[in-house]
Amino acid sequence: MFGNKVVFKAFFLIILISFTTYLFVSINRLDTGLLTVYFLDIGQGDSILIETPNGVQLLVDAGLNSAVVQKLSEVMPFYDKYIDAILMTHPDADHIGGFPEILRSYDVEFLIKGNVFSENDISQEINKNINPSNVRSIKRGDKVILDIKHDVFIEILHPSKDFSDAESNDTSIMFRLVYGETEFMFTGDASKSVENFLSSQYKDALSSDVLKVGHHGSDTSTSDVFIGYVKPKYAVISAGKDNSYGHPHQEVLDRLKNFNVEVLQTKDIGTITMESDGEEVRIK
User: Are the beta carbons of 75 and 272 closer than 8 angstroms?
Assistant: First the structure.
């Protein structure tokens, strides 16, 4: 009925030397040439919708509750009830609590989670509503191709099996979204210790135009070393207005200011929309 959402439902596992590639292939979707990233205003939590130039959609986290469904309806057409994949960065409720309602409201094809993901009641409910054969576990070094035509992909930086005993936040999937010459850095709730570990491993390869600030702007994340290597132009903080945690912490805002980073907050602006044409990132 709606040609731009007719999908050839294939999810191929391709082994390429040291990383794994998962491939979404779509046909008959409207090709805009633009990568769009929506940092949804879902209160105290994280939820980001990524839409590739060829229309492939990846929902990263879903906030605490059903608020995410309303926010998605504001950025997706009313008739669009299909999401290619959801990604759970880690099992904290303010990141995955909205997924059960997403699965009741949308047809979701694939579920992506980390290889050291600790299951809980919410994630088990989510698992029951996804075909087990369409659940993928990813780890550091993996590469997920979202749009083969435009070479849009995410590269997984963290975690590895070395972090299997780590506290929940430090098992967060951290990844870079890459389109042409532009990059977005996603951090979940990982702490400074993980950021600094990645800084020592990747150094300037962390460079990104946009930084999704870790742990909603808590001072447990966003170290000087990490900011220095990411070198973002923009930093996005997803936190609830007047939240009880005091996020974002002033120390984080001061550090970002010292690096001349423009800070955007969902609690002040609402949903933040960014577009990339492969050459530069713009705030829409």
Answer: no
Instruction: Give the lowest-confidence range in 121-125, 140-144, 162-166, 182-186.
Output: 162-166
- With a cut of 70, say whether residue 15 has pLDDT above it: no
pLDDT at 256 over 70: yes
Listed in order, strand segments (DSSP E) in the chain are: 11-16, 19-24, 35-39, 48-51, 57-60, 82-88, 107-114, 135-138, 143-147, 152-158, 174-179, 182-186, 210-212, 234-237, 262-265, 272-276, 281-283
Integer Cα distance of 174 and 196 in angstroms: 13
CA-nearest of 141, 144, 145, 181 to 158 is 141
| Selection from 219, 271, 224 nearest residue 245 by Cα | 219
- pLDDT confidence tier of residue 29, bands split at 50, 70 and 90: low
Residues 184 and 123: their CA atoms lie apart, in Å, by: 26
User: Distance of CA 242 to CAs 9, 40, 247, 267, Å?
Assistant: 42, 17, 8, 8
Distances (CA, A) of 156 to 19, 107, 153, 169, 170: 9, 25, 10, 16, 14
Q: CATH class for domain 3-271?
A: alpha beta
Confidence band of 28 (pLDDT split at 50, 70, 90)? very low
| Helices within the chain (DSSP H only) | 67-73, 93-96, 99-105, 121-128, 192-202, 224-230, 250-258, 266-269
Instruction: Measure the CA–CA gap between 39 and 110, rounded to whole angstroms.
Output: 21
